Amino acid sequence: MELNVKIKLTRGMTAPEYATDGSAAVDLRAALEEDEVITLLPGERSRIPTGVAISPESRDVVAVIAGRSGHGLKNGVTMANSIGVIDSDYRGEISVVLINHGSEPFEVRRGDRIAQMMFMPVLHAAFLPVEELDETARGAGGFGHTGVQ
Fold it and tell me: What is the pTM of this model?
């Protein structure tokens, strides 16, 4: 399935690309100045610009920004808000807020891959107020009620 997405590039950035034919997401890169380095100390977070703004052809999609698994595993660096939601009507530059949960400083330079962006369908809910919900075997059980094994 393919979606047309208009893209506005700033800060001298190039369009994101899919790394392989099977890639679900494109990498977003840090749009910093050529000699700029952002150092995230342990526990610190920073908003990193990408130089990318988008306009999807349909309001029935959302761009989802996710962290890169390698940064999380190797450095403890993730997105501060876990995922980012880019609504179909947002036209500003996409930024990524990184946080360093690791024990060592983490450096970000121009062109570094900092997150990934994928497009997903959106369903709009029609909320129907009721007095009671239907019964299920699970009921209101949550937060580990089924155990770990």
Answer: 0.89
